Amino acid sequence: MAFLKTEPQARFLVVGKGPSDADIRSVFAAEALGERLHLAGILQPPRLADAYHAMDVFAFASKSQTQGMVLTEAMAAGGLVVALDAPGVRDVVQDRHNGRLLDRETIAGFVKALEWVAGRSPMQRRALRAHTLATAQAFSLARTADRALSHYQALRSRTPGAKAEADAEWGRALNLIKAQWEITKDLAEAAGVALEVSEPPELGGPNP
């Protein structure tokens, strides 16, 4: 909301539904920003893809739902991402390359990051958008499977030591691979679905 006060052309689109809807409306109304708030509710494809295409910036402040599926979906639609640094998120967002990655949860930090995005020239926006699309492609199912196989092959090429130590190492490695695979698989599935939508239009003005 602080960014909307500094940028009169910005609008705030919320996709999803929850117990905070009424509170969000009240807060925006109290700041005389109600006309620039859009609560779209729960959307399913292809309307969800339309919502991503309508955004110039996807702001992501969650500290728990951080597997990154929504990030690759937004990037597949050509949107830039401003998000808090967290596992999963940092696998997708590269600061100042395809969005902004914030190391601290502060209103001032988010405002500055959104202002940074809004201040990019048309040429800079096109370059950033190209990076977001490339990131989404990198999480396709085919590329993700290739990376997983390369990790397995690298592990198999190692010379095992004592059996007990080797078994322990394999156990730790497989647990790490399993955890990373779950995150990467979700990212790939999200990117794959989002990339099936039509080519997004050119970015317009700031619209967090």
* Percent helix: 40-55%
Largest sheet: 3 strands, parallel
Structural classification: mainly alpha
Spell out the helices and strands N to C: HEHEHEHEEHHHH
Low-pLDDT residue intervals, each spanning 5 or more residues: 203-207
CATH superfamily: Glycogen Phosphorylase B
Q: At the first level of CATH, what is the class?
A: Alpha Beta
Beta strands, count: 5
**Which descriptor suits the 3D outline?**
elongated
Strand content is 5-15%
Could you say what the CATH architecture is?
Answer: 3-Layer(aba) Sandwich
Total helical elements = 8
Cross-sheet strand order for the largest sheet: 3-4-5
Instruction: Please compute the radius of gyration using only Cα atoms.
Output: 20 Å
Q: Average pLDDT value? A: 82
Write the layout of secondary structure elements.
Layout (H helix, E strand, L loop, with lengths): L1 H5 L5 E4 L5 H10 L6 E5 L5 H8 L2 E4 L8 H8 L3 E5 L14 E4 L4 H12 L3 H17 L2 H16 L6 H33 L13
Parallel strand pairs: 1-2, 3-4, 4-5
Task: Provide tags for this entry.
208 residues; mainly alpha; Rossmann fold; 3-stranded parallel sheet; two-stranded parallel sheet; 8 helices; 52% helix; elongated; disordered C terminus
Describe the structure.
This protein has 208 residues and is mostly helical. The chain has one domain (1-208): Rossmann fold, CATH 3.40.50.2000. It contains 8 helices and 5 strands, in the order αβαβαβαββαααα. The protein has helices at residues 2-6, 21-30, 47-54, 69-76, 107-118, 122-138, 141-156, 163-195; strands spanning 12-15, 37-41, 57-60, 80-84, 99-102. The strands form 2 sheets. The protein has a 3-stranded parallel sheet, sandwiched between helices. Strands 1-2 form a two-stranded parallel sheet. β1, α2 (21-30) and β2 form a beta-alpha-beta unit. α4 runs parallel beside α8. The model is unreliable at 203-207 (pLDDT under 50).
